[in-house]
UniProtKB/TrEMBL annotation:
This is Pyridoxal phosphate homeostasis protein. The keyword Amino-acid biosynthesis does not apply. Belongs to the pyridoxal phosphate-binding protein YggS/PROSC family. PROSITE patterns: UPF0001 (PS01211).
Amino acid sequence: MNVAENLDAINQNIEHACHRSGRKPQDVNIIAVTKYVSTDTAREALQAGIKHIGENRKEGFLEKYNQLNQEVQWHFIGTLQSRKVKEIIDYIDYLHSLDRLSLAKEINKRTSQKVKCFVQVNVSGEESKHGINPDEVLPFIEALKDYENIEVAGLMTMAPHIEDKKVLRTCFQKLRELRDNVREKQFSHAPCSYLSMGMSNDYSIAVEEGATHIRIGTKLVGKEF
Ligand SMILES: *Cc1c(COP(=O)(O)O)cnc(C)c1O
């Protein structure tokens, strides 16, 4: 695995996808998902120019956070159990998995600073997926105004694990429409300008459909465990 070469290839694909859709590559942030690799490999990603690290478990997050003392934005991308909030919330720059009011309540109680959150949406409707239903997005976000430490930075989804490009595209388009609906409301606690969508196998389509944050593991840093 040569992380720098992988990043070059990904940047080229982003450029092409932006060209096709009239977007600017600098509006797309690459989050290196390091959950399957060592801290050394994560460091390689930073040396190659990565500015965002994503982890989905408390232990992996804290390990990387404590060992990589560089200018990095820290993203927590996995399901966050309420009882673990207090151990990591002050180290997280962006939480990608806000999907219930009980979690918002716990976050609000355990920190005194604003936490930028993505509301996770289950666009595809798969049973196995976390996230709130598309028709609950607006009422959910309205209800979040009661928690002064929560800021809704955007929406996040995980597309189904399939090859069908049409289905993937529809999923990403739906998330963008939902984001636009929220943004129109101009809630002060929910600027909701970002879209966290796209992983190793579908990020080009996600970028074409407006992704501002793509979460890439395997195709960038590989899989060591
Ligand atoms: C693991 C993970 C990713 C990265 O997956 P790859 O297919 O390895 O790029 C992205 N988002 C979430 C939420 C993940 O858990």
